[in-house]
Amino acid sequence: MPTRTDPEIELPADAATSDDHRNPRRRRRDRDEEEPPPDVGMLVQPESRHDLDKLILHPEVKTDILAGLRALEIRADLDRIWNLSAIQPQQGRCILNFYGPPGTGKTRAALGIALRLGKPLYQVDYSAVISKYLGDTAKHIKAAFSAAREHDAVLFFDEADSLLSKRVSTGESCSTSINQNRNCLMQELDRFDGVVIVTTNLFENYDPALLRRIQRHIKFRVPNASMRRELFALHLPNPDRVQADYAVLAELSKGLSGGDILNICINAIYAGSTNPNPEQWMVTQTMLEREIAKAKKAKAEHSGEKGKSRRRIGFLDCCSSFQKQDTHSRMRSA
Hints:
Layout: H1 19-22, E1 41-44, H2 59-73, H3 75-82, E2 94-99, H4 106-117, E3 121-124, H5 126-129, H6 136-151, E4 154-157, H7 161-164, H8 175-191, E5 195-200, H9 208-211, E6 216-219, H10 225-235, E7 242-243, H11 246-252, H12 258-271, E8 283-284, H13 285-303, H14 315-333
Parallel strand pairs: 2-5, 2-6, 3-4, 4-5, 7-8
Antiparallel strand pairs: 1-3
Helix pairs in contact: 6-8, 10-11, 10-12, 12-13
């Protein structure tokens, strides 16, 4: 009889299967054993350099951020004039979604908000939250919100589409664990009386039920020419050792993000610091233009990859593949 060679299927990280619970040898621990709440994030203290006034963002982005913070600052007046507590009882509630390309300032803006509020930032570690054991991911989600309450911190979910992707049809084999996690997270958002910031590069992957729970959706975009010029000036902090035309650099770097420009400036500083005598160190236009060309080439090659599958792997994709393999196996058996 020929040996089956079905392709190996990669299940979602939090897709617990029945085998994980039927076989005691696969359990991580005795269920009766008491365990302290898991540490699923890191407490970050914002610094003065994260001040929102120092961030180079599109005006409408900064306006939306400040409007959300102002609603917290004038909450007493909102209650007095509009009786806002009748429709929104959580007085400190503010949930923001930052979406847009990588390197456009989403994480820095989250730190700026924490600094403005005088709070630490509790940054959730996705790898610590996700578990294949049924119920553990939901437990870790609750632990994240509990930690934010305990530290009076801004709760920060980076790349939140990993946790907030669309729920799965009940016909899918891994739907129980995935849907349980999504529902748990949405319930915790409803109960939390504090500031939550979620960020994503893949806004379209969010579950539709999440959208109404978010107070403001703020789109981050790549910087325009004037912003790029400011970014070069900001990231080359010793102008006396820079021989460059920022206006030209701004034109050459069209399409690059703030994060890209930061890397360009750092690499140019390294390139200009090779002389054995530090007093001779200098960053030149040529060095910066060379680094811009490298950054643009890397982006072009990444976006133009050929011969490789660039399908985005998500919960629906994985479950769908698993279901297709199961259907195919049944047809062959018949």
